[in-house]
């Protein structure tokens, strides 16, 4: 059968458009690439216009007031099964709407989707169909015919709606058709990067904060907080309903935040693993995620008046009575509700396309038009504004040009809000940053460029222990800009950096060809010479070992810095030092440099080749003694590929 509207995607955007079309008695087909199950537990912040829009869905066409539940007393005969089901749906709808305040509300995406599905069922008169586990295979805008991947017959359409998220599958199919038929013309939809988060690794966590003692837990003063902690931006929300429901001893939380690289990869490894592998790593990831959440939320304490010391982080089902009745369901609910994803914002060059002769048209909506900036709640709120506009297009009350203009305006407004959001974070929330020794190595070891910025922006907050740890990470990663940032901090009287590490940093600065990008004049040569007890540095070409010969190399081997060793050896060889002899010298414990390297499983030949090949090695957290471990938390080993400087 021909359809007035075909919708690609059944998230909030697709369902809202389907609702608008059904309300106007249009024939609708919704295509979704997975089952229509309410599985998206992420929370979103609805603005006042979105709340009004959802409440308006309760209005039935032809009636001025929202529909109410019918009772037995209103009818002489008993309620039919259909009427009972309808009453149950109305109860669910009213319960959902009761969560929405008059201003901003925090709601799970799955609850929004279920609500709209029920409202569609209430309004529809047999003129909507859903195709699950399918997507558009091909389309022809000149004939208004498309095929989908479930091997069904070709489908005739007039209006195609792209509501299929950031992968914009329907828009891609329009592009394919256009390229095949008009190869000289540019693409219909080009996606260009727009201003977004500074850091693109993100995650979301749903968990429960419980009172340690089971006593009353003070509920946070704010239920929705945007903040910055551990140098990462995030959005934290609390569920007051769960708090009231459980004797004020716990509440549900949702935390959306930028992630450190190690945690991003660990979460993806967990989510992609089969059940057996999941069980193997579940304890590790539970500890890592819990520790990250606990440490990160300390930065929000000022805005929430929440004392994390009084709480336990739990991923168990809230309703223990239900859990006992249905253990299998409880087991599923008890799984870690964590997601990790990358966020880069893209916007389509156009929101609409129309074929004049065939009278067919395509409209993008929601994330298909512009990637969402979840930290500002942009996606869901723009979606509902666009859905209402699509309805007006279907009515003929709004032109395609007006719809295009609306989408552009919403996008421009979001760009402005993104800039404002950044300013708020850099101003109001900058004092919330509370560095954690425990997390520094994990957080920045795989992304030292972030640590460099962190050091530059928070010099007055770093302790000597932080300094020592940062310098160690800088040397492991050959990050000279970080060394420079740290060196600039030495005018602080409370800093006494390890002189050997400092000398090693200076050597790296002198022999690395890229250091000219920085300012080598920062080195205080007189002070440096006073520190030199192991080596003598005069200028770029005169690095030699002192009478103790290999003491420095022993130190670097013990610290497991093969890259830095290769850098030093390379310069020593240039200056005529017998490196093999130095490597064989024994220290006070009777160990040579080679012995220590073997103990650390370092490839000896690569050291002797001095920076001519990569070294892949496993390193353990050698800085545990410097305060990185908390609560007896043991860090796991990580694989690291180090590339030396030529």
Give your account of this protein's structure.
- InterPro entries: FAD/NAD-bd_sf.
- Residues 64-91, 626-646 are annotated as: Disordered.
- There is one protein chain.
- The chain is α+β, with helices and mostly antiparallel strands and 646 residues long.
- The chain has three domains: 3-45 and 111-196 and 344-424, FAD/NAD(P)-binding domain (3-Layer(bba) Sandwich); 201-342, no CATH class; 437-642, no CATH class.
- It contains 24 helices and 22 strands.
- Strand 6 (136-140) and strand 7 (145-148) form a beta hairpin.
- The radius of gyration is 31 Å and the shape is globular.
- The model is unreliable at 317-324, 330-334, 424-446, 507-544 and 610-646 (pLDDT under 50).
Estimated radius of gyration: 31 Å
Tally of structural domains: 3
What CATH architecture of the largest domain would you give?
3-Layer(bba) Sandwich
CATH topology of the largest domain: FAD/NAD(P)-binding domain
Helix content: 40-55%
**Regions with pLDDT < 50 over 5+ consecutive residues?**
317-324, 330-334, 424-446, 507-544, 610-646
| Span of the ends, CA to CA | 67 Å
Secondary structure tally: strands: 22
* SS-derived structural category: alpha+beta
Strand fraction band? 15-25%
**What is the CATH class name of the largest domain?**
Alpha Beta
Average pLDDT works out at 70
Largest sheet: 8 strands, mixed
Shape designation: globular
CATH superfamily of the largest domain: FAD/NAD(P)-binding domain
Number of helices: 24
Biased composition (Low complexity): 634-646
Region (Disordered): 64-91, 626-646
């Amino acid at each position: 059968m021909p359809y007035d509207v075909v919708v690609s995607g059944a998230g909030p955007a697709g369902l809202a458009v389907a609702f608008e079309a059904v309300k106007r008695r249009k024939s609708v087909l919704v295509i979704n690439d997975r089952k229509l199950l309410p599985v998206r537990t992420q929370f979103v912040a609805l603005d006042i216009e979105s709340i009004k829009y959802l409440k308006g869905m309760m209005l039935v066409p032809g009636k001025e007031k929202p529909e109410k539940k019918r009772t037995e007393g209103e009818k002489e005969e008993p309620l039919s099964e259909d009427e009972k089901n309808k009453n149950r749906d109305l109860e669910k709808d009213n319960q959902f709407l009761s969560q929405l305040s008059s201003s901003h509300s925090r709601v799970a995406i799955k609850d929004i989707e279920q609500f709209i599905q029920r409202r569609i069922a209430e309004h529809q008169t047999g003129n909507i169909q859903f195709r699950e586990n399918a997507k558009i295979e091909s389309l022809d805008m000149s004939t208004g015919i498309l095929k989908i991947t479930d091997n069904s017959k070709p489908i005739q359409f007039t209006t195609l709606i792209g509501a299929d998220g950031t992968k914009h599958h329907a828009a891609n199919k329009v592009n394919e058709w256009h390229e095949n038929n008009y190869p000289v013309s540019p693409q219909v939809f080009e996606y260009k990067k727009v201003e977004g988060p500074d850091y693109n690794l993100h995650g979301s966590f749903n968990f429960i904060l419980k009172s340690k003692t089971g006593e009353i837990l003070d509920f946070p003063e704010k239920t929705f907080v945007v903040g910055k902690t551990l140098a990462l931006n995030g959005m934290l929300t609390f569920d007051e309903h769960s708090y009231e429901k459980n004797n004020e001893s716990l509440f549900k939380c949702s935390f959306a935040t930028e992630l450190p690289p190690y945690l991003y990869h660990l979460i993806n490894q967990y989510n992609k693993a089969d059940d057996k592998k999941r069980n193997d790593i579940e304890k590790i990831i539970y500890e890592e995620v819990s520790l990250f959440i606990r440490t990160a939320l300390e930065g929000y304490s000022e805005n929430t008046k929440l004392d994390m010391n009084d709480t336990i982080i739990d991923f168990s089902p809230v309703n223990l009575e239900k859990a006992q009745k249905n253990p299998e369901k409880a087991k599923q609910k008890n799984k870690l509700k964590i997601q990790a994803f990358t966020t880069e914002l893209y916007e389509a060059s156009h929101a609409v396309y129309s074929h004049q002769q065939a009278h067919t048209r395509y409209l993008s909506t929601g994330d298909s038009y512009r990637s969402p900036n979840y930290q500002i709640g942009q996606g869901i709120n723009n979606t509902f504004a666009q859905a209402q506009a699509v309805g007006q297009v279907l009515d003929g009350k709004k032109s395609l040009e007006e719809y295009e203009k609306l989408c552009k305006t919403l996008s421009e407004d979001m760009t402005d809000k993104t800039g404002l959001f950044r300013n708020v974070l850099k101003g109001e929330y900058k004092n919330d940053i509370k560095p954690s020794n425990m997390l520094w190595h994990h957080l920045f070891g795989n992304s030292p460029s972030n640590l460099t910025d962190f050091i530059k922006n928070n010099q007055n907050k770093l302790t000597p222990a932080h300094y020592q740890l940062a310098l160690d990470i800088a040397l492991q990663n050959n990050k000279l800009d970080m060394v420079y940032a740290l060196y600039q901090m030495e005018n602080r009287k409370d800093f006494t950096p390890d002189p050997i590490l400092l000398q090693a940093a200076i050597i790296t600065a002198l022999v690395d060809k890229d250091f000219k990008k920085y300012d080598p004049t920062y080195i205080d040569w007189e002070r440096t010479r006073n520190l030199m007890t192991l080596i003598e540095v005069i200028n770029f070409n005169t690095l030699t070992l002192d009478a103790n010969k290999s003491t420095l190399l022993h130190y670097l081997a013990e610290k497991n810095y093969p890259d830095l060793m290769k850098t030093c050896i390379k310069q020593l060889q240039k200056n005529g030092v017998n490196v093999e002899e130095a490597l064989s010298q024994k220290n006070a414990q009777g160990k040579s440099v080679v012995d220590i390297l073997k103990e650390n499983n370092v490839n000896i030949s690569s050291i002797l080749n001095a920076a001519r090949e990569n070294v892949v090695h496993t390193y353990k957290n050698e800085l545990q003694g410097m305060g990185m471990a908390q609560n007896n938390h043991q860090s796991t080993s990580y694989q690291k590929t180090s590339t030396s400087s030529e």
